[in-house]
Design goal:
Blueprint lengths: L4 H4 L10 E4 L4 E9 L6 H12 L7 E10 L3 E10 H12 L7 E4 H9 L4 E8 L2 E8 L2 E8 L4 H17 L8 E5 L6 H8 L4 E3 L15 H76 L5 H10 L6 E8 L4 E7 L2 H13 L6 E5 L3 E2 L5 E9 L1
Parallel strand pairs: 1-5, 6-9, 9-10
Antiparallel strand pairs: 2-4, 3-4, 6-7, 7-8, 11-12, 12-15, 13-15, 14-15
Helix pairs in contact: 5-6
């Protein structure tokens, strides 16, 4: 058990659903009987009645109400108000640390709802170093008093005055239940003699029942909403940073893997370099020897296929040159069309497909003959 809110703050965590139960000394409780009207207009009527009954302006107070009972003609309402400055003073240890309650209610209302949600009851329990009492109807607090002491003579004065105040507010003084906190066990017989009803001992509620009453100021609601949005953005940024760090880590791992792979391949290349060099040298030698040992490169074979590709007797080969890297054919045709036809037949000749043939535009002679040059390079 903790004595003050300052001791409770270190136990809280961000995101906790915090409900603040106010002591009786911090609030004003009032019971109203009002005509039953349109439900949409009822809250405004209650607010006006509360403002008339309270000694402070509406801007200085936060109020809320609960309906005790309602029928077609009238409604009985329990209204609770707290002064904003007093509330800020009580909740300062929480608010200063950024812990905004989701609900500010009355602890006596929580206890009453827990133990006597129906009927009239008298609740007596300690708040701090003082003894307090509350009259409840259907779990709603309608009258509160701070008792002056715990002596028999003092209780014999205070409790009858409480009953008289209840009668003046239209609350019957007969209680279906009298609840006494278990820490006040020694007062059980005294209270029994005064109210002529044996009290029922009750302990600390863990947790108390939820109640509708909420005295959370509007400024606190806005601040709580801002803190919630800030927390959401903080979570998003945190997850974004984690995602960015994960991507960066994967990129670093990829670079490390790539370097390791490159180093491995370099070692493989260095190991295979002698064999690779041998293959390259052998390939170069075979290419050099190709024209000598490959019949397709024999000049006689090539000339035979050249003459077999002549389109007609009007095309004459005037010069033929062959090296290890290419062949060249000079010739003359009666027309440029025959020269082009000859070049085309060379490209389609299967025996000459080892060469890639190219021909520039033929030169037209004064005799109208076409002089051409075709070059062939091994593929």
């Amino acid at each position: 058990m903790l004595a003050t809110l300052d001791e409770a703050v270190p136990l809280l965590r961000a995101g906790d659903d915090l409900i603040l139960g106010l002591p009786i000394s911090a609030v004003l409780a009032q019971r109203f009987r009002l005509p039953t009207v349109d439900p949409a207009e009822f809250p405004e009527m209650v607010r006006l009645q509360i403002e008339k009954a309270l000694p402070f302006s509406a801007e200085e107070m936060t109020t809320d109400f609960e309906v005790i009972e309602q029928n077609e003609s009238d409604s009985v309402v329990s209204a609770i108000a707290v002064q904003n400055d007093r509330l800020a003073e009580l909740a300062a240890p929480l608010v200063d640390k950024g812990y905004i309650p989701s609900q500010v209610t009355l602890y006596a209302s929580q206890r009453a709802t827990t133990h006597v949600p129906q009927g009239r009851a008298l609740l007596i329990y300690p708040e701090g170093e003082r003894l307090v009492s509350a009259v409840t109807e259907n779990g709603r607090v309608t009258l509160t008093r701070t008792l002056e002491g715990i002596e028999r003579e003092q209780l014999q004065t205070d409790l009858p005055q409480l009953a008289l105040s209840a009668e003046l507010q239209g609350i019957p003084s007969s209680f279906s239940n009298v609840l006494l906190d278990e820490t006040c066990y020694e007062l059980r017989d005294t209270v029994h003699q005064i109210v002529d009803q044996r009290p029922e001992l009750v302990g600390i509620e863990t947790p108390p029942a939820r109640v509708k009453l909420n005295l959370l100021p509007e400024s606190w609601r806005l601040r709580r909403s801002q803190l919630a949005r800030r927390g959401e953005w903080k979570r998003r940024l945190t997850w974004g940073a984690i995602g960015y760090a994960a991507v960066l880590l994967l990129f670093v791992l990829f670079l490390v893997f790539t370097r390791i792979r490159i180093a491995y391949l370099d070692r493989q290349i260095a190991r295979d370099a002698p064999q690779t060099e041998f293959v390259r040298a052998a390939d170069a030698r075979w290419k050099a020897l190709g024209p000598a040992i490959d019949t397709r490169y024999y000049p006689v074979e090539i000339l035979y296929h050249l003459f077999e590709s002549l389109p007609s007797d009007d095309v004459h080969i005037t010069a033929y040159n062959q090296t290890a890297r290419q062949i060249s054919i000079d010739g003359e045709a009666n027309t440029a069309a025959l020269a082009y036809q000859f070049a085309d037949k060379l490209k389609k000749n299967d025996a000459l497909r080892i060469f890639q043939f190219t021909m520039a535009d033929p030169r037209i002679l004064p005799s109208s003959h076409a002089q051409f040059r075709i070059e062939g390079r091994p593929r």
